[in-house]
Input
Amino acid sequence: MSYPDIRPRRLRRSAAIRRLVEETRVAPAELVLPLFVKEGLTEPKAISSMPGSVQHSRESLRKAAHDAVSAGVGGLMIYGVPADGNKDETGSGGLDPDGILNVAIRDVIAEVGDSTVVMSDLCLDEFTSHGHCGVLADDGSVDNDATLALYAEMGVAQATAGAHMLGASGMMDGQVGAARKALDAAGFKDTAILAYAAKYAGAFYGPFREAVESSLQGDRRQYQQDPGNAREALREVDLDIAEGADIVMVKPAMPYLDIITRIRDRVDVPVAAYQVSGEYAMVEAAAANGWIDRERVILESLTSIKRAGAQIILTYWATEAAQFLRDRY
Ligand code: PBG
Output
């Protein structure tokens, strides 16, 4: 039997040919940098479980925002951490126009204006004394509908502070619709919503809990998803889009690449993925031990998330990766 001598290696022979046929490229504009700012800090403070990342002071936050924009980063996601002792049962610091998150949004907008997309976390967990993403009912469970009323007010406060896009991350049912309705009623029809649509109750958020000094005891399994469930993620995404989500996100990213692909194939809105703190910490720890090539693993991880179908990636390496990518292309 004769057959043509087909050799896939022809297209891998030189760097120039490989570049010509490369299917997936990550651009700096597709990366979003999550940033932590803590009330009352005068100097940035290291986060031990996230080597290289810090809790910012208001001043260092502005500088980090500026540096990200200079590197071409497409967006910033701001998380506020109240001063020690400044949390309460209802997370009122998150709604306060002078609370750290709203102050930080104004600072960052003053620094970068419309040159990048300024996003803020629409969730109460950084501000509640019990660490849950909403307020508690008498039986200790998270009260979905009472929480929605607070998210509505919190969202309007963030839009008033100047946020371009709100990250609805609390996994309450109806949260996107509640925020959309409140924004529209307050005249913020153009403030967009990034829905953390498929957010899993996994263990990859551990370092983040240090970063925001979370008070959480227990877990979030009554509102975030079970890691084994895929169809349920599609249902969450459909609901968020019906409620008015402008972008839907999968979180974490690398352990859930199949979910990213299934959502990409299903919807027409932009799909984002969040490379979370545990993904970051694993790579930093292995690299610090000399076990992996840090820069290559960072770029390979971002490429895999993009290849799976995410066109926007939240990553703590956004500024640095943007610089690597600029040198590359
Ligand atoms: C909730 C929120 C969390 C993260 C982002 N938004 C924590 C959680 O769900 O427990 C985690 C991000 C990360 O691990 O990098 N406001």
